[in-house]
Specification:
single chain; DNA Primase, Chain A; Dna Topoisomerase Vi A Subunit, Chain: A, domain 2; 4 domains; 16 strands; flat
């Protein structure tokens, strides 16, 4: 990854107020010296997301996401470090110098840039092929699907030739080497045929990231052939779980919700009909990563999946994933048509808007599908259905929301409210609530990050580092008692050394320390070191002083124990030095 000097990174970061930036994405309110709100990286009812103006850092006590203003924007916007730095520099009125690189970072930056260039050149080539004689079949296919010239141009639609090495030869003529083409996802190599195209004789759909850069392709075969639809494999620039088709356009919509579709043609048909808020997953199952991405741009997602059995199953899988990240989900019904494309062709945009307006609440959609498994004419089966409904109502953990849904469900199924409420409470008392299973798909933002249970030693070390940043006056008091070497974890030790050095230079700056780490997990851990939960009962100065002494004693004792374990007991001179050091620490 390209980088700038530490000095320029720190200048940009220090001239950007983290509270101002995060306030544009998260509703914050002041609590004490910090600002708190609902975490944008996981679903929560009560705010555990804290932003410190003093430390210029954020930290979520619920999911562990944390860092400075740069890491926040990288995670929230799914942007690279240089992209965020350039954005913040422009905001702060700072002119960035020419980017500096070390050897490894330059190679990585060059590779990423070359891969983007390859995708761009391929998109141009496919686009041109569609519009000459060789692309006639694909062009007629798109016209048959009622796409206008403007729509084909807007989505950059193209065609991959029937010759299986056509694109390969073209890209070679542009000066690309086999090594980089192999990593592009567009060319495959084998001993018999050498280099040959991943896509051939297909109508092509360029896939773009949120900034409009081509990162991959989808292709529909022309005529007979399998698979019918083919997508680029994942590459350095193409992560299917962190991108959605047409989100680069849909994120700019003025409409209150986003429409989630199953296929590229559904998305394109909706956009052509005026619904510029349609997106689709990229030939893969809908994931928590996709849901988190959608949450950045909307609060409501309407599902427009196919009305057949597979579409219903896909909707049932997507609903709990959307709810898990805090999105409202509704289902659009297109019967008697299969998908949005067919519906629009048959009834037009005005009728589709009516279906949007009449979209079904996702909970009642789930119940309607569930009801099909029961014989509602049979009392026993009907009772079993109501028991299952009650179990599902227990899935609403917030009492007010649960009561609202009990009322609505009772009205919907003509059940007495008190009877249904009693059934829900009875099942709840027995611990028989429905369990929603969410796939294990964790985005890089720290979403669903499980805080590891820490031992007392690590907790003491985190408390000390947090106290040092909250109360700078402590440094002169403890620096002679505890050194960075007394911290047991290598990362803790490294952070302590940086913090001590900052104090020696006269300025503690924890947000700057975050910038020294590029790994997501390390950044979260470092943020947690400066946001340890302080015991609430420590109100008096006397209690706080005692707690500090307990922490210092714990760290000294554990450090001595670790050093003793490494001493050779037969080396009397080394053992004596350890004993002297232990006596000195007690004194």
């Amino acid at each position: 990854m390209p980088f700038y000097s530490d000095e320029i990174v720190e200048e940009v970061r220090s001239r950007t107020d983290i509270v101002d930036v995060i306030s544009q994405y998260v509703k914050l309110h002041k609590r004490g010296s910090n600002y708190v709100g609902l975490c944008p990286f996981h679903n929560e009812k009560t705010g555990s997301f804290s932003v410190s103006a003093g430390k210029q850092m954020y930290y979520c006590f619920g999911c562990g996401a944390g860092g400075n203003v740069i890491t926040f924007l990288m995670n929230y916007e799914n942007a690279t470090f240089p992209e965020v730095l350039q954005e913040l520099a422009q905001r702060a009125g700072i002119e960035l110098p020419t980017q500096e690189y070390d050897k490894e970072q330059k190679q990585r930056a060059d590779k990423r840039s070359r891969l983007l260039d390859i995708q761009k050149d391929a998109a141009k080539y496919y686009y041109a092929l569609l519009r000459n004689q060789r692309g006639k079949q694909a062009y007629e296919y798109f016209k048959k699907r009622a796409l206008s010239e403007e729509t084909m141009r807007k989505f950059g639609l193209g065609y991959s030739d029937k010759y299986s090495d056509d694109l390969y030869r073209y890209l070679k003529s542009k000066g690309y080497e086999d090594a980089i083409l192999k990593e592009s996802g567009l060319v495959t190599f084998d001993e018999k045929r050498g280099g040959h195209d991943k896509f051939w004789n297909r109508a092509m759909f360029p896939i773009m990231d949120v900034r409009g850069k081509v990162i991959g392709f989808g292709g529909r075969v022309m005529g007979e052939g399998e698979p019918k639809y083919l997508n680029s494999p994942e590459t350095m620039i193409f992560d299917k779980s962190r991108n959605l088709y047409a989100l680069n356009i849909a994120r700019m919509t003025k409409k209150p919700q986003l429409l989630l579709c199953e296929g590229y043609m559904d998305v394109i048909a909706l956009h052509q009909a005026g619904f510029d808020n349609a997106v689709a997953s990229l030939g893969t199952a809908f994931t928590t990563g996709h849901a988190s991405l959608l949450k950045r741009y909307t609060k409501e997602v309407y599902l427009t999946f196919d009305s057949d059995g597979a579409g219903i199953k896909a909707a049932l899988r997507a609903i709990p994933i959307l709810k898990e990240v805090g999105l409202t989900a509704k289902v659009i019904h297109m019967e008697p048509y299969k998908d949005p494309d067919e519906f629009i062709k048959a009834l037009g945009a005005a009728e589709f808007q009516k279906r949007i307006d009449e979209a079904e609440n996702s909970f009642f959609f789930e119940l309607r599908v569930l009801e099909q498994n029961y014989d509602m004419r049979d009392p026993e089966s009907k009772t079993a259905f109501y028991n299952e409904v009650a179990r599902r109502l227990l899935g609403f953990s917030e009492e007010l929301e649960r009561e609202t849904y009990i009322t609505a469900t009772a009205e919907h199924y003509h059940i007495a409210f008190e009877q249904l409420r009693k059934l829900v409470n009875t099942l709840g008392a027995r611990g028989l609530g429905a369990q929603t299973v969410i796939p294990e798909q964790q985005p890089k933002s720290g979403m669903n990050h499980k805080n590891k249970r820490e031992n007392g030693s690590l907790q003491a070390q985190k408390l000390l580092l947090t106290w040092l940043t909250d109360r700078p006056q402590l440094y002169t008091k403890i620096k002679s008692e505890i050194s960075p070497d007394d911290f047991s974890e290598p990362l803790y030790q490294k952070v302590a050394a940086m913090l001590y050095e900052q104090y020696e230079q006269g300025n503690a700056n924890p947000a700057q320390i975050i910038s020294k780490f590029s790994d997501d997990e390390e950044q979260r851990t470092v943020a947690s070191l400066f946001h340890a939960r302080l015991p609430e009962e420590l109100e008096s100065a006397q209690d706080q002083e005692k707690a500090l002494q307990d922490v210092l004693q714990r760290i000294r004792r554990d450090s001595l124990g670790a050093k003793k374990a490494q001493i050779d007991a037969t080396n009397l001179e080394e053992m004596q030095r350890f004993i002297d050091a232990a006596k000195a620490s007690k004194g």
